[in-house]
Amino acid sequence: MCETCGCSIPDQDHPAPADGHTVEVLQGLMSANDHAAAHNREHFDRTGTLVINLMSSPGAGKTRLLEETARALGDRLNIAVIEGDLETENDAERLRRSGIRAHQITTGSACHLDAHQVHRALHDFSLDGDQPVDILFIENVGNLVCPAAFDLGQHLNVVLLSTTEGDDKPAKYPVMFRAADLVVLSKSDLLPLLDDFDVESAEACVRALGTDTPVIRTASGKAPDVAAWIEWIEATRDAHTPAESAEVA
Amino acid sequence: MHELAVCQQLIAQVRATARANGAASVGRITVRLGPLSGVEPDLLEHAFVFARAGELTAEAELHIENAPVVVRCRSCGAEHETASNRLICGDCGDYHVDLIGGDELLLARIELHGVDRDKDGNRAESKSQIGEPSNV
Asked: B56 in a domain, yes or no?
């Protein structure tokens, strides 16, 4: 054992202390967030809720997709949403008008949700008892950078890429798109009008991140088409089994 | 700009370690950072200046060790250092690769000043030139 600080690194390999005393830590910088996220995940598993973290740049159509999801699945599954925005309850109110239970987190100037914010929201937002929730969507703050760094306790990450944004976004934001379990090309009904978004190029950018992540298309405009999305949700829901750590009381 | 939130977390961990060791102050803090961690080294350095203010860490310095992005091919086993948006095998071009480095976001080590190293755990007067022991 190291004589300097009692760590397990052999003494000869230990960096020489300067005028002080050096302690090896080797701890993840996100460990406090990750601990809260694990706690959230246990809670979700206890209530039998599948939790999907929805991320994209602002305006890619996250809220609109959730409205369509409620229309398609609302009579079969209990769907709820936790909304993250810098300001306003606008998105939560929009979703409530579609008949979805929604809770708004306003982050002030923070560019992402973290696990503690979701934890606090869950104190006011029951997922079981009289109001069971089969699928909880967490609509993260619109941002392709920061939300990727914070585990919230979700089971899956879905990243939207709207066709008006550019097909090389996965190459520009590799951390975000590498975290995705599904990439949704939203506003695909606009593809015939756009000359600079190539679906194959977008998929190639996702593959270049070393992943097999499926890429699907949705449209939520005047002629909505969310069939592939609904199919993915249903297959995911069927395949989802809560982690073994969640003891059923 | 989530680097300030990350930095505040870093400082909280550093202070906890400093207190546990009975240190009077903190010197160099070494963080190991990969490009796929989602944290920008430059922004972390800017945020650090604000986050360190307060007890124990006011004089601390941040040292960042940049970790390279390295992938190992599942098909041919080759290992390559690569760009963070090009996670494919440099030999056979397969995208079925495992990331074996590049997403690190680790507090590696902390240099502490004014630590009493009495084996019985008793806090004696500090032998360090740096300052008085903390009152924790």
From this structure: yes
Q: How far apart are the first and last CA of chain A?
A: 44
The CATH number of the domain holding residue B20 is 3.30.2320.80
Domains of chain A: 40-239 (3.40.50.300)
Measure in Å the smallest separation between the Cα of B14 and chain A Cα atoms.
9
What residue numbers bound the domain in which B92 lies? 3-113
Angle at A168 between CA B79 and CA B101, to 5 degrees: 25
For residue A112, what is the nearest residue in chain B, using CA coordinates? B2
Give me the DSSP letters along A143-198. -SSGGGG---S-SEEEEEEETTS-TTHHHH-HHHHHT-SEEEEE-GGGGGG-SS--
Strands (E), B12-58: 25-33
Judge: B112–A172 Cβ closer than 8 Å, yes or no.
no
CB contact under 8 A, B37 and A175: yes
Instruction: Look at residues B71, B10, B3, B65 and name the one whose alpha carbon lies nearest to residue B39.
Output: B3
With H, G, I as helix, E, B as strand and everything else as coil, classify residue A120: helix
Flag whether B33 is in a domain: yes
Is residue B59 one of the residues assigned to a domain?
yes
A205 contacts B85? CB cut-off 8 A: yes
The answer to whether residues A44 and A53 touch, using CB atoms and an 8 Å cutoff, is: no
Q: Around Cβ B67, how many Cβ atoms within 10 Å?
A: 18
Q: Is B119 on the interface with A (CB under 8 A)?
A: no
Domains in chain B, number: 1
Strand residue runs (E) in chain A: 21-28, 50-55, 79-85, 101-106, 135-139, 156-162, 182-186, 215-217
Closest CA to A219 of A193, A192, A187, A194: A187
C-beta of residue A68 within 8 angstroms of C-beta of residue A88? no
**Model pLDDT, residue A241:** 79
B71 part of contact set with chain A, CB < 8 Å: yes
Measure the CA–CA gap between B43 and B83, rounded to whole angstroms. 20
Cα dihedral: A89, A78, A144, A182 (round 10): -170
Q: Average pLDDT by consecutive 10-residue portion of chain A (249 residues)?
A: 39 50 91 95 96 97 96 94 91 92 89 94 92 96 92 98 96 97 97 96 97 96 94 95 55
Indicate the pTM of the whole model.
0.86
> Would you say residue B132 lies in a domain?
no
